[in-house]
Give the backbone structure.
Amino acid sequence: MRLIVKEHPKVIDPSELLRPEPDFAQKNISKFRDYTIDENDPLKEQVRYTYRLMHKNQTVDFVKKCHENWLKFDHANMTVREALEKLNDLVDESDPDNDLPNIIHAFQTAERARVEFPEYDWLHLTGLIHDLGKIMAFYGEPQWAVVGDTFVVGCKWTDNIVYRDESFNENPDGYNPKYNTKYGMYSPNIGLENIMMSWGHDEYMYRVLKHNNSTLPEQALNIIRYHSFYPWHTSNDYEHLMIPEDNETKQWVLRFNRYDLYTKSSIIPDLDALWPYYQSLIDKYIPGIIEW
């Protein structure tokens, strides 16, 4: 039986997200998620190119094909630790804030959650594994279908998607009347559970955990599923598709976003010293070999 945590998260004051404590990062808050265009900056151009491919190719049909491929869970059998260690070799091509291997970011996020909520061990583990779906990149999936911000497919793209003005021009769904209106293939207030997200590590890891009967609470699963859904949780897009229960999910995701985004820095945690604690959480919530 899956644990459901009854505590309600504190309602987030949006200004908190703009005023993280100084030790959240070693750079000014305005420097995070900088998607300005600078053709002379190789990192920014790499990020922009990744999003251009994502927004060109992420259609309803493409996402359906990804579901058919990945939700068979027949790509690998390994423990959570083995999957995490694969992230040593992955640098996210969509991330303007970080050029370190993803496993470093995993521990940075987990440790910040542990400091703020020491009593919620499930939240610490959520921080550790939130990006673990990125292992798809090692099994043939291009990074534009693995990393980056997510958005809803099957309806009009909202204004707060990064590079929105220039990057969707070649996506055929934008010219399909079934998909290019405010509601597209959905009905008002259908709920996040019933919409189709662009394919990436969020949705994949959520499905992996469900498939393998993880005992993480529903809040943890939803954090993983929607943590990259920035147009929704940070810009308040897609409210016309929400149901009241989605508001609590948003509060948990906003809280988690502080650990995910503002911990990206050059300070590298001692992974060897931290492994025993996090292995105990893996054994508690996602034990043994799991299907990917």
Observations:
- Residues 158 and 237 are 7 Å apart (CA to CA).
- Strands lie at 77-78, 290-291.
